[in-house]
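Each field is set out as follows.
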Amino acid sequence: MANFSINNSTGSGFGGTAQSMAATYKTFVAIAAGSSSVGSGAPSGGAASPYNARRGKIYDILIGTNGTPADNFVTFDMSRITAALSSVAFAGAVSSGSSSFVLDTADGLIQAFAVANSTLESSVGVSVWSVGINQRASYRWVAAPGSEIVYPAASSAGVALRALSAAYTGTVTGTVLFQEQ
């Protein structure tokens, strides 16, 4: 069980440009089980993933804003992805097979696809986690053991961390820590 981390300011070509908030949801981190059908959106020529899909567990989420302080309300949401990440416009790159996200360098390479700062929205399903915070605040959610947000080892299965605000038009920050099994 390897542990990984991705945030929307990740370097090594995976970061892209943060998208400004709007009154509709914007995805700033997405993770999906790696499989050959998910990798078709890869900027490196659309090469399919050579890895098998693995189940993932989200166990830690850190969120906030990085704009000028003001009193605005921002809603953050973690929703299931119901379509392959190839339908997401990759602002950075897909991460499958990368060592950039490994928390323990003795673990293997990531097999999921992790995307930061999407420029399009994927098809999303049920919201599994949502919190509203003041723009001046940051927030951290840590799963109680056995209460992690789980996505299955299946093509087109994953989660997207999104945000929206009616008043705040700056950018948000987010870090997702997850485990592949």
Q: What stands out?
A: Residues 2-180 form one domain. Residues 67 and 152 are 35 Å apart (CA to CA).
